[in-house]
Fold these 3 entries.
Entry 1:
Amino acid sequence: MSIEATVLLSKNEFVAELSDGRRINQADLRQMAGALHAAGIHSGDARCDWRAGHRMLTAGQQVALNAEMRRLEKQGVQVKSEAPARPMALVA
């Protein structure tokens, strides 16, 4: 079972609430992406949400967070995964 994250913006600080109960606070969006990556969150398991009392992440911020998380995943640093990686064949 993968860990999911809900990212909010509260008082100019990004807050991620993880499905396992942890909470991550970061002032910078790139640092938030790195912290989520280090916590084992995949880019597809992070979603942005809005609640009363919080600010909504702009579309640009949401795209930037997802892109940075995907970049970290492709960088070669593997996130702990419960499912084994499937081999992939490239066809030219």
Note: The mean pLDDT is 84.
Entry 2:
Amino acid sequence: MKTNKLLLALSATAMLSAGAVPAQEEDESYILEMTEVGVKLGHTAKFREAVKPYNACVAENDSDADWSAWRNVGGDGTTYHFVSTMANWAEMDTRDEALESCWSGHMESIMAHVDSVSTSFARPMTAWSGDAEGYDMVRLHQFRVDDGEEFGEAVGAITSIMKEAEYEHVGSWYDMIGNSSNEPDYFVVSHYDNFAAMDEDRAGPYNVVSEHAGEERAEALWDQFGDALKDDWEYFHVMLRRDSELSHSSDE
């Protein structure tokens, strides 16, 4: 699946720094590319209307690029997260003439409503992750880690117990690539079918582990997990909802 070169064009000024935290063995199956676009105050409707013709142009020119669009729920201002995948870094060397042509024709109308752009990359941690599909709401729980080895041991044990318990809401874990010192090192995605699903009374991870491995084991793992995090700004979360109109699939 080709990455969306719109994201690369939007993020031309975004710089990534080294310093990723050591992790368990990563899944080399793909690289997740996430571009966060801050929209100018009062320009949300205009931004949306500017992106739609770009999407239509990409579809008309038979590009095989795919991306999903997500809008923030709560927080400051309006931000959109455009998410795509790459099989490997070599895909960034590949030119997509359809995307380039469409971008040159719609760049000015889109960027007129953009306030900020940042791009980040991550790899999936499938050993820690569950299976999820058909969701339109997500929460990204993000962590800054001080001790990657302790963090990996704790998360690996917690998620293993949750899977053994056949807990149906195991999240999707990702390891950030090239993140800076004030960005998350890892994040886990909690999935929901819709807003109503967020009202459901789900058992939390601690309760699942406590029930199936004992309270003593649960407390020990949570202590290990907490001790592995940075002392300052160790956790934060973002809530997003899918925007199907601004997403694009080459299969449609």
Note: The longest strand covers residues 114-124.
Entry 3:
Amino acid sequence: MLMGIGYRMSGRLTRAHRELNRVVSIAPDSSEAAVATQLLSD
């Protein structure tokens, strides 16, 4: 999750999406996945 946020903040959106999607795939029902999904939709 933090790697995805870091990549997003640095403008590396492809890498950010990859990391955030990984969070969702590993723990789809977690609060982290909910945050990752929200970040992916922005």
Note: The radius of gyration is 9 Å.
